[in-house]
UniProtKB/TrEMBL annotation:
The keyword Flavoprotein applies. PANTHER family: BINDING MONOOXYGENASE, PUTATIVE (JCVI)-RELATED, TRK SYSTEM POTASSIUM UPTAKE PROTEIN. This is NAD(P)-binding protein. InterPro entries: FAD-bd, FAD/NAD-bd_sf, RIFMO-like. It holds the Pfam family FAD_binding_3. It comes from the Bacteria. Its cofactor is FAD. Residues 3-333 form the FAD-binding domain.
Length: 502
């Protein structure tokens, strides 16, 4: 019997597969497409996604392939959120087409030993007490496999979600957005052109040699809602909104999507789990879907691996839904708010756009708040009573006197114990800096002093960082013995305590 089957070979499924394989789990990815889709549904990569790539040692291979833009839009308002104010090594968005993201992710996953079966479409599943029976249709005909867990990463129309009987409540479409990849003889002089008026909205971005992405909403009814608009209609749309067609010709891909938005009522049903668009359908607004999906995978990967390998403490896998479902709901709220700004062009909505535009331009704290929410930097999973305020928050790339930052320490995909006393005074007796892992899941131990001061971290003497870069425990305890005792308790909570015969 296999250990995990993932349905869907897009960014979410591939990153989840890599995370599982990093922990030694056997993974098979079923992807219905025989070849990678050459067209890019999304191309905006946010800082938190680049941080997770860096935390697995593959950040440079992605970042060097893309184009850096120091800001990003909110609802395609004229003034943009400044990402340069964020506390991250990646204070920008990266323009990188989804086919290239998938190519790099698949190469990384295959190098780790992930089995990717292209041309295999999921058809049905049956969940049993100790396994899931998965049926698929491939080049050789129908096949059946058994697996300990099944994960649906197969998009908003998820067949895995339907087979598991998981609800997908939400709202229907009230507007339609179009994207077209075209040649422009007279493109905008700026790399990120946007314009909104009573006729609709247009965004123009270069996406590759000789190609531009033209996207937006038709408020004047030029494009219609049924069938693919022709080149003539696309030019008319641009003229109506931007005042020029930029010399548009030869569209190579045109696609539309409605403004419907939905959220799965649960991310787990027994041995079946959901991630990415299978768990949440979002209106396209600055790459939110791709980024949130990959971040779902990062949260789920180490938890599912711990469960498969038998060292997960009680409730760890359930915490995937508990942590990521609220993030999905918050993202849905964020994109729905932007949908209203991007799809209605009444005088009232245009006035609201003007008010928010002024706020972004004149109130740096407001711009930063929106940037933190949109980028994933602001995601926090909460904490229990008595926990340090850092618990649940994303840990920054703390620079340490020994050289490497925190992200480099996270590369093996293990918990990281930081003794920030610099002298080893926070280390419990059973924990050393030996390369041999002292616990079943493994542990990276670093006894060092930070070389920079950060708000919230200035008095911290020790911290335990989860494999996904969020703080599991932190302490400012001054008494060394009490600090070591608290650290030992925190470490014990990461691993299932086995009783004789279990």
């Amino acid at each position: 019997m296999g250990e995990v089957v993932i349905v869907g070979g897009g960014p979410t499924g591939l990153w989840l597969a890599a995370e599982l394989r990093l922990a030694g789990v056997e993974v098979t990815v079923l992807e219905r497409r025989a070849e990678r889709d050459p067209h890019s549904k999304g191309f905006t990569i946010h800082p938190r996604t680049m941080e997770l790539w860096a935390s697995r040692g593959v950040g440079e291979s992605f970042v060097t392939q893309g184009r850096r833009v120091p800001d990003s839009h909110f609802g395609l308002l004229d003034h943009r959120m400044d990402y340069g104010t964020l506390d991250t090594p990646f204070p920008y968005v990266l323009l990188l087409a989804q086919p290239k993201v998938e190519e790099l992710m698949e190469g990384y996953a295959r190098d780790l030993g992930v089995h990717v079966r292209r041309g295999h479409a999921f058809t049905a599943s049956t969940q049993e007490t100790d396994r899931v029976v998965v049926r698929a249709e491939g080049p050789g005909g129908p096949s059946t496999m058994e697996t300990a867990f099944l994960v649906g990463c197969d998009g908003a129309g998820s067949a895995v979600r339907s087979a598991a009987g998981i609800g997908f409540p939400g709202t229907g479409s009230t507007a339609y957005a179009w994207v077209a990849d075209v040649t422009l003889d007279d493109p905008p002089a700026v790399p990120y052109f946007q314009k909104t008026n009573e006729a609709g909205q247009v965004l123009v971005v270069p996406i590759g040699p000789g190609l531009h992405r033209v996207a937006g909403v038709d408020g004047a009814g030029v494009l219609g809602y049924e069938g693919q608009p022709a080149e003539k209609e696309l030019r008319a749309w641009l003229v109506a909104v931007a005042g020029t067609d930029f010399g548009l010709h030869d569209p190579v891909w045109v696609s539309g999507t409605g403004s419907a938005s939905c959220l799965a009522d649960r991310y787990r049903s027994g041995r079946v789990l959901l991630a990415g668009d299978a768990a949440h359908r979002l209106f396209p607004a600055g790459g939110m879907g791709l980024n949130v999906g990959v971040q779902d995978a990062w949260n789920l990967g180490w938890k599912l691996a711990a469960t498969v390998r038998g060292w997960a403490p009680d409730g760890l896998l359930d915490s995937y839904h508990a942590e990521r479902h609220p993030v999905g709901a918050a993202t849905l709220r964020l994109t729905r708010g932007q949908t209203a700004l991007m799809t209605t062009f009444t005088p009232e909505t245009l006035a609201l756009r003007s008010v928010l535009d002024d706020a972004i331009a004149r109130v740096p704290e407001f711009s930063r708040f929106l940037a933190e929410q949109a980028s994933g930097i602001g995601v926090s999973y909460g904490r229990g009573a008595g926990d340090h305020p850092l618990v649940g928050t994303r840990a920054p790339d703390l620079r340490l006197s020994g050289g490497p930052g925190l992200f480099a320490l996270l590369v093996p995909g293990r918990y990281v114990f930081l003794d920030l006393t610099g002298t080893g005074r926070a280390l419990p007796g059973r924990v050393t800096t030996s390369p041999e892992p002292p616990t079943p899941p493994g542990l990276v131990v670093c006894a060092d002093e930070p070389v920079e001061s950060r708000a919230g971290w200035r008095r911290v003497r020790a911290a335990l960082i989860r494999p996904d870069g969020h703080v599991a425990w932190a302490s400012e305890e001054d008494d060394d013995a009490a600090l070591r005792s608290a650290a030992a308790t925190a470490l014990a909570a990461t691993t299932r305590v086995r009783t004789p015969g279990s």
